[in-house]
Amino acid sequence: MTVKYQQETQLNLDEMLALYQASGINRPLADRERMAIMLASSNLLISARMDGKLVGLARCLTDRAYVVYICDLLVDKAHQQQGIGKALLAAVQHATGPQVQQLLRSAPSAMQYYPKVGFSAVDNAFHIQRQY
User: pTM for the full model?
Assistant: First the structure.
């Protein structure tokens, strides 16, 4: 099957929630309102679709001039290790251009993945942990 990558201006919330569930990524899926806000506030969505079905997503925030924050990179578990995540990251770079720095925060389970697709670890970042 061929995977089609495209920039989308909006996604169906139920379709997105189904992908989050299928990917195993830890997000507050039961809180539909919060997930809807997360989706609506993203200003760059790159999807991966097989026969129209959403199988991967890069959900991002960007100023399109200097930085893009990849909030979530997720691929349906049934389609992982087929290069979809790497292609989504390449599509983000293509959409924003080489002058835009890509940043993301990795789940502990993916720390070995990102160096393999060109990312370098940084030690000059700070955060305040969310309360819930």
Answer: 0.92
